[in-house]
Amino acid sequence: MKVLVIGGGAREHAITWKIHQSPKVSEILIAPGNGGTAGLGENISIAADDIESLIKLAVDRQVDLVIVGPEDALAAGIVDRLQALQIPVFGPTQLSAEIESSKAFAKQLMESRSIATAESKTFSDFELAVNYSEAQETPIVIKADGLAAGKGVVIAQSHEEAKSALHDAMVSSIFGDAGKTVVIERFLDGLEASVFGFCDGKDLAMALPACDYKRVFDGDEGLNTGGMGGYSPPEFVNQALMEDARTQIMQPMLDALRESGRPFTGVLYGGLIVTEGGLQVIEFNARLGDPETQLLLPRLNTDFIDVVEACLEGRIREISIDWRTDSCVGVVLASPGYPGSYPRGLSIKGLDNMDDDILVFHSGTTLDEGSLVTNGGRVLTVVALGSNMHDARQRVYENVRRIEFDGMHYRNDIAARAI
Ligand code: AMP
Ligand code: GLY
What we know:
Bound molecules: adenosine monophosphate, glycine
Number of helices: 12
CATH superfamily of the largest domain: ATP-grasp fold, B domain
CATH topology of the largest domain: D-amino Acid Aminotransferase, Chain A, domain 1
Number of domains: 4
Distance between the termini: 42 Å
Low-confidence stretches: none
């Protein structure tokens, strides 16, 4: 098979790394890819949201399968376009992907099926939104309805802060159209875990759970990022909780999507929180997570292409998916200034000095005349497996300390709470 992977992050490097091991795959194209995917296939310099050029690439190069990493392409309808051309594609259609691209739609569907989630109300009128928020207890959560690159959520500690978040989104339009409608919801307190269902439209198979760290600094201080690292499995998620997640949340949502004419094929991502009142949904996404993918695919023994084919052929329940029992920790190395502005082109050293079983997934890297340089905010995800979390954590940090680029920063507390 010739496979096209869409995206250029560490998630897509992990996907490419995994399918490169498949005996079914003979050639991989990655658009746009990065310095890490370059050694596993052919990087094609097309942005992940340039739908027209991606379609043309898939047709011209006669690819047998397209795997879509990021949400933007899904929300823009790349799956619908490829399906119309009879090109097999792993990911949900535009309408199904609204489970991620419209938080208002997601909340409405959850409420209609009594899927546990924070009480909320949706507004398109600024004054009404402010009036409602002022009648609620703080902290209160303000969410832009649409895609905002993970930055559309504000946890307001006061009514004043809530009003200013509403003003930013609805009046100043800092998220463009994505913030014209907002969801205001109750703050939930608890530990968060990400769960994933490989979905064939009707049924799903659950992947292993994982935790990610969204804030930039140790102790969950500082701004939100695309993710600074994570670990799997979470120490607070047992079998019974996973069974609840499957039967009370993931399968009911898959049913709800199918019954509303939006059958979901691809990876359904449940961002869950374990509260005193039980398991609740923070959000759904329509794809694999980043950095969770970098933690999960190294633990997947089954050929990922077999999983993808089972989803596309409506037989996910018929295959057995085999996982390693190891613990896994991943630490993201970021550019100086990230998540704010940062320089590019910094020379990266030390990657030739990693222990054999350490995995390094690239995101913001590129090759500059053959040598590896930074090319983004999050640069690398360094991943270690271990027989327990302590071991995996120790090994990942030992190796992280051997990598260098000017101003590199990372969190020191990834997986610390799990030990
Ligand atoms: P989201 O973009 O929906 O994943 O939100 C980003 C982060 O905001 C989540 O990972 C949570 O840490 C936090 N968050 C979102 N909604 C809530 C909520 N209702 N209560 C507490 N924290 C929340
Ligand atoms: N790990 C968060 C995300 O992928 O959205």
